[in-house]
Structures are given as structure tokens and as C-alpha cells.
Amino acid sequence: MGDKALDVLEEALVSEDRRMAVAVAMKIAEYVLPKGVEQAVQLGNQASPEAQHEQQRIQMLGQMTDMMINKARRYDMPLPPDLEHAEAELKKFEEAESRLLNSKSST
Fold first, then answer.
1. Same domain, yes or no, for 38 and 55?
2. 92 burial via Cβ count (<10 Å: 0-12, 13-18, 19+)
3. Kindly report the CA angle at 77 between 76 and 83, in degrees rounded to 5?
4. Which letter does DSSP use for residue 78 in this model?
5. What Cα–Cα distance (Å) separates residue 67 from each residue in 2, 54, 61, 62, 88?
6. Whether residue 7 is found in the same domain as residue 56
7. Do 19 and 12 meet the contact criterion of CB atoms below 8 Å apart?
8. Residues with Cβ < 8 Å from 90, sequence gap 6 or more?
9. What does pLDDT average to in each consecutive run of 10 residues of the chain (107 residues)?
10. Does the global pTM surpass 0.85?
11. 13 and 25 in contact (C-beta within 8 Å)?
12. Domain that holds residue 8
């Protein structure tokens, strides 16, 4: 009996009738997630361990790049060739940020 019920649910979920598929999916979600849609959204927003690891890696690389640019400026040292473009991008960002702050303070 349980197998037949699962087959019916599966057919309903892949049905061409989207209203029926959504209604079945919502009922399943209500059963699986007692707190309802809010819990499903919360679970969906939680990043997977792989995504969290990638985000940490990107953040660490950004901090290292920032440190290298700051030290190069402070000690008047050249940056490695791979980071020269990063300094140019940082200068553009700083100039745009400065213009934005100046325009806000003058209003």
C-alpha cells in the first residue's frame, strides 16, 4: 500500500497540472517540515558545507590580497605582477567611494 501511495505522489509531483503538483508538494512540505514554508526557506538559505568552504576560501584570499596591497603601499614595494590589476581595481573603487561620500556630505 505504501509503495502505491508513493507512486501516486510521484506522479502528482511530475504532473503537467502545475496546480496539483504544487498542492502535493506543499502538503509533503507541511508533513516533513512541521513549521511550514518558513522552515523550508530557512533550510534552503543555509549553505552547504562545500559552499561555506568556498566562501571562506574567497574571503581569505581577499584578506591576503588586501594585506599585500597595504604592505606594498606602506613600504613602497612593488606588487607581484598577478596583483597589479587588483591594485588598479582597488584605486577605482576607493575613488568612487570617495566621490560618493563627498556627494552625500555636501547634500
1. no
2. exposed
3. 120
4. P
5. 60, 20, 10, 9, 15
6. no
7. no
8. 69
9. 71 80 76 66 68 87 88 89 82 86 76
10. no
11. yes
12. 2-45
